[in-house]
């Protein structure tokens, strides 16, 4: 009976290319250390698992709402996101409701910040205009004292 009860999944040694077991810390053929390779493989597996979950969470729903809620300096998109989320929260499940509340909160923050930013910007431009008015040369004046060589 030469039937292997359990065959470990095989991969290649990065230095010599020999087949090594998935859990081996060093290569049987060349003695190369595989610990780092093993670590990277695990990290990659967990990373792909994480990104997969993240993607499923984002793509599933609300991506447009998130984007709308986060668009800076525009007031209409977050307002829209808040209204749509409010509607989703009324007829959604528990998780949908909590997501909707987050979106509404962020959208409201964005609306407030946008209003403040626009006020600040208009004050800024007004302030800069009045500050620079006396400094700026009057219209059509030539620059006096041009350098002579
Ligand atoms: Zn090897």
The fraction of residues assigned to DSSP E strands is: under 5%
Mind describing the biggest β-sheet?
A: 2 strands, antiparallel
Rounded to the nearest angstrom, the radius of gyration is 31 Å
N/C terminus separation:
104 Å
Bound molecules: zinc ion
Count of extended strands: 2
Strand order of the largest sheet: 1-2
Helix run count: 4
Would you write up a description of this structure?
The protein has helices spanning 35-60, 63-70, 76-91, 94-132; strands at residues 10-12, 19-21. It has 149 residues and is mainly alpha-helical. The chain folds into two domains: 11-56, no CATH class; 61-132. The chain has four helices and two strands; from the N terminus they run E-E-H-H-H-H. 60% of the residues lie in helices and 4% in strands. Helix 2 (63-70) runs antiparallel to helix 3 (76-91), helix 2 packs parallel to helix 4 and helix 3 packs antiparallel against helix 4 (94-132). The site of zinc ion (ZN) has 8 residues, from loops. The site of zinc ion has 8 residues, from loops.
Descriptors for this entry?
disordered N terminus, two-stranded antiparallel sheet, 149 residues, binds zinc ion, 4 helices, mainly alpha
Give the secondary structure arrangement, pairings included.
Elements: E1 10-12, E2 19-21, H1 35-60, H2 63-70, H3 76-91, H4 94-132
Antiparallel strand pairs: 1-2
Helix pairs in contact: 2-3, 2-4, 3-4
Bound molecules: zinc ion.
């Amino acid at each position: 009976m030469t039937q292997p009860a359990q065959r470990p999944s095989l991969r290649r040694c990065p230095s010599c290319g020999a087949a090594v077991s998935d859990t081996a810390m060093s290569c049987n053929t060349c003695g190369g250390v595989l610990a780092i390779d093993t670590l990277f493989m695990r990290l990659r597996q967990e990373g792909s698992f994480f990104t997969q979950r993240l993607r499923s969470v984002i793509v599933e729903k609300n991506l447009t709402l998130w984007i709308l809620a986060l668009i800076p300096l525009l007031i209409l998109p977050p307002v829209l996101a808040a209204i749509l989320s409010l509607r989703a929260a009324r007829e959604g499940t528990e998780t949908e409701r909590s997501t909707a509340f987050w979106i509404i909160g962020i959208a409201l923050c964005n609306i407030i910040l946008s209003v403040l930013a626009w006020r600040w910007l208009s004050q800024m431009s007004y302030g800069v205009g009045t500050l620079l008015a006396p400094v700026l040369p009057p219209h059509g004046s030539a620059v006096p004292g041009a350098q002579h060589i």
